[in-house]
Amino acid sequence: MEHPIVEKILKEGINSVNLSMLDENARKKILSDVGEKLYRQNKFVEAIEILAEAGNMEKLANLGDGFLRENKMELAALCFIPTKDKQRLNSVAVCLIQAKNYKLAAKAYEAAGNAQMASFIMQNFAGG
Fold it and tell me: Rounded to whole angstroms, how far apart are CA atoms 128 and 119?
């Protein structure tokens, strides 16, 4: 049986409910369910945001790997940024540079803890 809060969030958005009254496990479960449903509806960016808010890093890493296999580098980067997974972030940043998406590449490097490379990309390629 679907949790009624999941349906409410899907219909009215995350700001329609106050999840602070729930314990961490219940909050994570509800948000993860919402993220899964949004993903199945091809609302990828929204799904990624909700899963990041849920703190579901394992699911984000798996989704990011799937987007990488599908050559959807931007979506993969959005998945990997909250995980702070250095290896995945550095790999996707290289792909983003090749695709000339310099700002997202810089964000990926920043999330990987590579501030020097992020700064280099912004100063030399992204007009920052």
Answer: 8
Report CA 116 to chain centroid distance, whole Å. 23
Q: Judge contact between 30 and 6, C-beta under 8 A.
A: yes
Q: Cβ–Cβ contacts within 10 Å for residue 7, how many?
A: 13
Q: Which of 122, 55, 111 is nearest to 88 (CA)?
A: 111
Geometric angle at alpha carbon 24, from 53 and 20, rounded to 5°:
75
CA distance 95 to 89: 10
Taking only the tens place, the pLDDT of each residue in 97-128 is 999 999 999 999 999 999 999 999 999 987 65
| Per-residue DSSP letter, 126 | S
Query: What pTM does this model have?
Result: 0.90
Quick one: which of 52, 62, 50 has its CA closest to 9?
50
